[in-house]
User: Fold these one by one.
Assistant:
Number 1:
Amino acid sequence: MSALDLQLHDRGRVASGSYVSRSQADSTRGSPFRSMSRSSPTGQAETTFGSRFDLPALPLEDWEPTLDTLHLWAQIVGKVRLAAAAPRNHWWHVTLYVDVRGLTTRRMHAPSGITFQIDFDFVDHRLVVRTAGGDVESFPLVDGLSVAEFDANLHELLGKVGTDVAIRELPYGMDVATPFQEDREHASYDADAVTRFWRILDWADGVFEEFAGWSCAKTSPVHLFWHGLDLAVTRFSGRRAPENRSFDPVSREAYTHEVVSFGFWAGDQKVREPTFYSYTAPEPPELRGRPLRPDAARWTGERSAMALLPYESVRTASDPRATLLSFLESAYCGGSDLAEWDREDLTSSWCPEPAALRDLLGEVN
């Protein structure tokens, strides 16, 4: 075995990914989807990422005013990113990302030439602006902080470090029409609920990353779109989609190619609970007839088919990770098969063996 082979084998150990890939199948026994643990330097059992741990409850009605406020705050920060980042296909340049303390824009470049980033710190509950020159400015995220005050405080910090940019000071795609500078109605902040939301995002981000690695097709980053405040990852067939003249310019850029997309959002006026979702675009005929896993998953949607799985069904499952992976895989199989994707060619060497995937989907081998 070469040195490179040894490195790849070491990186692909079950302990690092807690599943058996095609490249691991000859050296590993047992179910690839069961929770696994490894020994920490202290000799105590350490849970691998994505394994079983207590996911928090997050009933929408308990924190909906905070969610609405946080959504508007995220739109302000997201619009700064939109103004300070070079354009990318499918709007990938505007998104936020989950990090070890909350959400981040990652690195941006101001017109002044200063490199900076903005972070929602959900550990200390602060909004933080950092620059490559070492400047750090912040303000607390507290109950009573209105959207108008958040907007003013953020632009003040950005001006102080020489990175302020002009944004369109209106919400996008929300049932709120009040300009940010005038919105003093939305001012709720439940720190405990926000922390639980972030921890769910952190966990889901890890499972989405694992699932993304099962494909060698063009795949989006796992990122948070501030339009809907949803965490998402998208797989592509590699083929352009037919032009849809009914699309607005935003949707036209988002759906230039065939996709199966997956995500999580905390709920809204139509879906009254936190939920995982998937859809295929363009939507192939008979998609609603394809089976979904687990049993709690369902197809919904008046005009287009949306696969939904309540977060509560994942949270209370004996193996949340395998439960979510089964939903993602079943939705992907349904959409990609009907759209005639070459799934075998798009499968990576890190994807579990076909027998393991059938087991995940509850199919008889």
Note: The first helix runs from residue 3 to 11.
Number 2:
Amino acid sequence: MGYSIPGLNSGSRIVGAEPRLLLQETDAAADAGLWDIDLNSGALKIRSRTDADGAGTDFLQVKRSSAEIAMLQLDTGEIDLYGNMANAEAASLANRKGYINFNGAAFQRSWSLAITANDGNGTDGASGADVQIARQSAGYLKFGDGAGNYDNVCSLGHPNSRIKEIWTSLNAINAAQFDKTNTVLAAITGMSVTLTAGAIYYFEIFLFTSCPAAGGAKVDLNGGSATATTIRAQHELWLGATINTNAQVSALNTSTGVTAAIDRIKIFGMISVNAGGTFIPQFAQNAASGTSSVLIDGSMRIVRIA
């Protein structure tokens, strides 16, 4: 049942020290049908009420300073925003265009913002969300690809009209000693990052080693699944203040080795990725004798530059 107020027009007012308008849905469940719009002490509120007009939740409150809006407050466990309701018939809310959802009591739980591709004319991209922003830890955000993978680049602005770039650094540390007693190259445990197809990265790898003179060491970069369109890397095998051997290589599977005592290894260079996948250095003895080891606390840092 509806009611009309004769003579109500754009100039009509509800006037008072605390003007209120009550709306009641008669077929709602108990304590779920009464709402009011309340204006008091400079705050306009939309509130839920009990059936007896008792206190509910002031879920929307707006305050003003003169003619300007000074504050908008929402008190709710979830917010759904729909920028374009053309897909409103879709069963899943996530399929609606312009859909943003913040979940959690008082928004204090884990959250993320996923953004889908759009052609600028209201047509969603077929691949779904491809940019994601989420909380990493206290004081930190992380950026990802929309599928929960957060080792990807986030670009603020189109490449042709860019205002700033944020390139994530991919880091790995070997937390356990890696021993070799033969000359078969093997991926170093813990030293792995995932690279994106078509991207270009600068990388630095530093390994602390303990290699006997009779066994020595050798390394390459062929321990992962990523492939390179081009790569240029410098391999340096050190003992004390001297580079015992070094080489510049242009393939992931080109190794550099020496049969001599080695206490650290440095590898640095650039890679243009063909097929995306893992990027892992490999290590072995140069001659099978004793045990050659990559000690703990080696590191790998990779920065995407294009």
Note: DSSP finds no helices and 26 strands in the chain.
Number 3:
Amino acid sequence: MVRRREDTDGVKRPGSSRRKASKGKPTSPYDQALSLATSAAPDWPTVLRLLSEAMKKGDMRAAYALATWNLHGKDALVKKDKKEAVRLFRFAADAGIPKAMYELAVCYQNGEGVQTSDRKAFALYLASGLKGDTDSLVEVARCYKYGRGVERNSSASRIFLQHALELGAEV
């Protein structure tokens, strides 16, 4: 099984290595949801409403967040639904969101909500890695090392792993 990211609710955390929201009052529904979700006492039903609103307005970051909620479940608000999670990950991945590409690749690798496909998983890891996602670069290296979804190539494996480490990947 491929490991999942630690942030299973799809919401950015203060102090994370990801881009920080701009200062001032958040204006978009996604930014409002992010602000509320990272507050001392999150109002999860309101966060869910704001994420749903943001997704309807085309913000695929919200689709990614909702996908993680569907994949893992979110308290009593969202039941686990792996097929819905995959559908939402696809929307976000098609919009170019590296984290969504990674999570969709993990779904293909592990057969969660989709039929297992090492080739599709590899292609998604590669696409996400080329956008700078270090977890994906580590997985590309692993795929090359063991020939999962791609022909075995130890040289390519070392190159991708070295690049991931240079970008700060934790292995």
Note: The two ends are 15 Å apart (CA to CA).
Number 4:
Amino acid sequence: MGDNVPILDNNAPLLGNNIPILENNASLLENNTTILGNNAPILWNNVPVFYEVSVLFLKKINKVLRTVSDNIVLINHLKQNNMGNSKVSINFASSKYTDEALVTKTNNILDRVDGSPTFQSAQQIIQELRVANTNYINALAKVEGGSKEDTAIKNNCRKTVETLLKKLAGAVQTISDGDEAIILSSGMDVNKKPGTVGKLAKPENFTVKPGDNKGSALMMCDAIEYADYYEFEHTVLPVTPTSIWLKDTSKKRKLQKEGLESGKEYAFRITGVATDPSRVYSDIITSYVL
């Protein structure tokens, strides 16, 4: 202990010099304690503000999540209802359109798509269709009272128009990306969606004429909406409750029946067929077969 006395004596001035520093730091600590004490009410008053900000933030997050959820529901709804999945009808056959009806349909389509910005990429096909339709109209005008050659030319012109209409339908399908509104704006039709079709309408303008060959008869009626095919029936006269009606089917609305007995009188009728099992027949027409 005696040996350490000189060391303690030597360090005494150092300890003495540090006392003011310790006293100064004590004052700083005391001052900071006062500042913290003064700020405590401010911090406490801001707690509700922090709480409200947190609540608003959570509400915004919840709103975003609800929006995402609603969009998912909407997308699923659109998928279930095949929105954007519409298909352009490519049926331009004579079973659906008479010669005159096809001219009217084609003119309507040309009026809608020719020069339209929406169908700009299909303008070459449109111009080809316009030329073909003009040729078809001119050929059609020569059929009445014309020769078989005139009829053949008209039929060839119609085939060209039908081919170009189908080509244009493909372009409309691509441009529309299945959007029904865009398809209809072109004048084209949309394929009917699968479903149960009720009872079909009664066939109208049913006619029976001598066929091209001996013992034949040509039956024809107007196109029946939603008909998948047609049933042509005939029986020998007189018609009784026990008469047996012989049936022929065709996708087209006209049929030439061969193999009938020349000089015999027959009864003819027609009906359209779809999903409904019932049949609505035309009026019966009787005619002798040549």
Note: Residues 77-82 have pLDDT under 50 and may be disordered.
